[in-house]
Amino acid sequence: MSLLEVSGLGISFGGLRAVEDVSFSVSPGEIVSVIGPNGAGKTTLFNMISGIYRPGRGSVRLNGQDVTATAPHLLARMGLSRTFQNLQIFQEMTVLDNVLAGYHLTERGPVWADLLALPSMRRRAAEVRRGARDLLARVRLDKAAEQEAGSLSYGALKRLEIARALALGPKILLLDEPAAGCNAVETEEIDHLIAELAASGIAILLVEHDMKLVMRISSHIVVLDHGQKIAEGDPATVSRNPAVIAAYLGTDAPTEDPAHADG
Amino acid sequence: MTRRMKWIQLGVLAALIVLLPLLFPSGYYYRVGALIFVNALSVVGLVILIGYAGQISLGHAGFAGIGAYACALAPEHLGLHPGLAVLLGAGISGVMALLIGRPILRLKGYYLAVATLGFGILVSMVLTNERALTGGPDGMVVADPGLRDLLRDLGLRLSGGELWYGVSGLVLLVGAWIALNLLDSPTGRAMRALHGSEVAAATVGIDVAAQKLRAFVISAVYASVAGSLLALQNQYVTPDVAGFLHSVEMVTMAVLGGVGSVLGATLGAAILTLLPQVLTVFAEYEQLVLGAVMIGVMIFLPQGLLPSIARRLRGTSE
Ligand SMILES: Nc1ncnc2c1ncn2[C@@H]1O[C@H](COP(=O)(O)OP(=O)(O)O)[C@@H](O)[C@H]1O
Ligand SMILES: [Mg+2]
């Protein structure tokens, strides 16, 4: 059974139909990519699925449960985690603290235990710290653990967001242009990491402009243009689809300018 | 690492509290010291609210007023021991903060500043106008909690100034310890995280509204206890304790010292408490000075005094 089921999802901003009647599903271990030109509605779709925008129409189901317009912090408890295209980093916290914040649901206890630094909290804190350092090693940021996050490079911050999103042990992970602004080596690392995560059973929903990456790792691709789904299927099918080629030729070529990030 | 930092900061604070009296030219300075500690206590509360959680309150003196008048009224009308009145005031302040904060903190934006502004004015108006109960603008006498007599019976002879210097210093240390515990805890991290990005905090499972509310309630309790201590050591209260100027004073102290730093809060409180004591002109132009300090800090030391100094020291030693 699919883990995430999106059906007939739509939203308008003023007169603009940013997303219109989009449906697809993601199963555990699957990598589903959403592609489309800038402004196609990919980020808006993510924002609706992750509870940041309230959808105007349609529904989102997680593990068979209707979670349409559920608050993000409640979706997190159900195992949905995400990263952001325009970085959302806790700038003034250390790199390690950013990831530790991702362990909030594992680590939190009664507030007085925190106020009084009760010993019961300490063992859990030590475990969580070890987990956080492992995650940082996984995205090659272990050496920067004590640095202030704001001092990191763009590519490093992208990886930090992935580590933080993994900290909550997600069942499904939404990645919004994780390789944007990364060099070839970093892109390859992210590619491997995503494949590894999927292999471990996490469902991945990916937005990415780097077409080589998308074609290589996706199990299924959904193509958006002007807010509408114009095609879907496996990478080979989608890349041959005339509507897809037209949509890309009409605007940006798909492999061009991966760093061209919009808000 | 952070745990070591906690004990270093507490050690520095404890050393200052113990050693400072060696420099006092007269017994009067115990009074000034006690006042600094009381102010620092409410500012440490604001460090949690403003520095950790990034929320602004312009009416925290309202909670100080509740704490102060609890100590004035509860012993007289309820026959409560003044020590218990401190707890009663803290409880009432906490509940008030919960009632105000719960609906307000669900909204995005600076509604808390506006709501607390209204709350502060309301408390100060009630205290001023309910003459029969509070004595109105002239204020009222606060009963002696009998701490000095108790200590004397135990063989420890202290002047009033020395006693309240010790009590306020001790309570400040406990307050600083709690704030530093919070800093390196899941709750404290959640507060700092939502300060950095509310959206990202929510997506890692942090209930943003609930964490803001926690910070607000905790800081209200700090202000309330500080107000209580002030009433007990002065043995007198006036509605000024709840006034808008006092709220602004607290925020200015926090911003001056460094709004994210517990030691900085103490430094800010010390400077702005001492200024009017040392230079009487400052007492006359207090509002002007507060405004100027606020603007100056924002322009030249946006991090506040202590963090800026620390950063500069680190910068040169590396
Ligand atoms: N909060 C918003 N208010 C108004 N318009 C928005 C908002 N969010 C997105 N949009 C618009 O919706 C469209 C889709 O944007 P977006 O989802 O960011 O595209 P993509 O991520 O595919 O590049 C754009 O035209 C964008 O301007
Ligand atoms: Mg986008």
Write a concise synopsis of the structure shown.
Chain A is an alpha/beta fold and 263 residues long. Chain A has helices at residues 42-49, 72-77, 95-102, 104-107, 111-115, 119-138, 154-167, 184-199, 211-217, 235-240, 242-250; strands spanning 4-13, 16-26, 31-35, 57-62, 65-66, 80-82, 172-176, 203-207, 220-225, 228-233.
Would you kindly provide a written description of the structure presented here, covering whatever features stand out?
The complex is a heterodimer of chains A (263) and B (318). Chain A has a domain of 122 residues: Rossmann fold (3-Layer(aba) Sandwich), CATH 3.40.50.300. Chain A is built from 11 helices and 10 strands. In chain A, strands 6-7-8-3-9-10 form a 6-stranded mixed β-sheet, with helices on both faces. In chain A, strands 2-1-4-5 form a 4-stranded antiparallel β-sheet, covered by helices on one side. In chain A, helix 3 packs parallel to helix 7 and helix 6 crosses helix 7. Chain A is globular and about 60 Å long. Chain B is an all-alpha fold and 318 residues long. The mean pLDDT of chain B is 91. Chains A and B meet through helix 2, helix 3, helix 4, helix 5 and helix 7 of A and helix 8, helix 9, helix 10 and helix 11 of B. The complex binds adenosine-5'-diphosphate (ADP) and magnesium ion. The site of magnesium ion has 4 residues of chain A, from helix 1. Magnesium ion binds next to helix 1 of chain A.
Integer count of domains of chain B: 1
Distance between the termini of chain A: 34 Å
Task: Estimate the strand proportion of chain A.
Answer: 15-25%
Q: Please provide the count of β strands of chain B.
A: 2
Within the CATH hierarchy, at the fold level, what is the topology of the domain at 1-78 and 220-263 in chain A? Rossmann fold
Task: List bound small molecules.
Answer: adenosine-5'-diphosphate, magnesium ion
Q: Give unreliable regions of chain B as ranges.
A: none
CATH class of the domain at 1-78 and 220-263 in chain A: Alpha Beta
Largest interface: A-B, 41 and 28 residues
What sort of overall outline of chain A do the alpha carbons produce when their principal axes are compared? globular
Mean pLDDT of chain B: 91
